[in-house]
Amino acid sequence: MITKSIPSLLTVGNLFLGVIAIILVFNEKPDTAAMMVLIAMLLDGVDGRVARALNVQSEFGKELDSLSDVISFGVAPAFIMYVVAFQELNPAFAWIVTALFPICGALRLARFNVISSAPGYFIGLPIPAAGGVLATLALFKDDIYVSVLLASTLVLSILMVSTIKYPNFKKVGIPKSAVWVVPIVVVVAVVLGLVFKNDLSKILFVPLLLYALYGLKKNVDGRLKKRNRKRGKLKDHPDDPVQSEHTA
């Protein structure tokens, strides 16, 4: 019974940190709030792997994971960005942009639960990655124009509900014999996160941003290749026959 509960406890920990992140940002601690989102990402990354390692996957765990993700990687990052950057904007506009992010995240999760993705890929930017980028991007509020932060929030929202393929690392599992290491890793991550919350958050922003941009680049490259192939086929096999000089 306890073994079956371990993955769900990790997922509840993810949800707990999301709620704490919201509380922290409204108490003027955005750097700590962003770190809570990043640690929640760690828990989100291991709960499913632990469930597979222990062979205790369930529909309950899947639904709990999705509900937790909406809070930790949808609502919490959106509030972090709103509190640190959007409060001085037109209220209606700021509210709409802020709300759009968790809405798109919820749509992304609902689609993920009912539609199977291509092997090795996610369809659309995963909400943990999008939330991680948004939460850490907010820490650069003094170095980036608010217009850029607004545009970034909108782009991340669109990427989540897009059909762009992103690499899926879920195949990298955890052996059953190594499950006991997970609590140690989580504790170490929490300690490091609290001690170096500002610097570590900004450092982790870089790989998260690269992941978000990677899928976008792959999509653009794919579209360009398809367009070039179509042009090549049109040159080799034109649809309209060329009229001769004697047809008029």
Sheet/helix structural class: mainly alpha
Radius of gyration: 22 Å
Individual helix count: 8
> How many beta-strand runs?
2
Percent in helix: over 70%
Give the distance, in angstroms, between the N- and C-terminal Cα atoms: 85 Å
Morphology call: globular
GO molecular function, one term: CDP-diacylglycerol-serine O-phosphatidyltransferase activity
Protein name: CDP-diacylglycerol--serine O-phosphatidyltransferase
InterPro entries: CDP-alcohol_PTase-I (IPR050324), CDP-diaglyc--ser_O-PTrfase (IPR004533), CDP-OH_P_trans (IPR000462), CDP-OH_PTrfase_TM_dom (IPR043130), CDP_ALCOHOL_P_TRANSF_CS (IPR048254)
Region (Disordered): 227-248
Q: How would you describe this protein?
A:
The chain is mainly α and 248 residues long. Helices cover 74% and strands 2% of the residues. It contains 8 helices and 2 strands, in the order H-H-H-H-E-H-H-E-H-H. The chain has a two-stranded antiparallel sheet. Helix 5 (127-137) packs antiparallel against helix 6. The model is unreliable at 242-248 (pLDDT under 50).
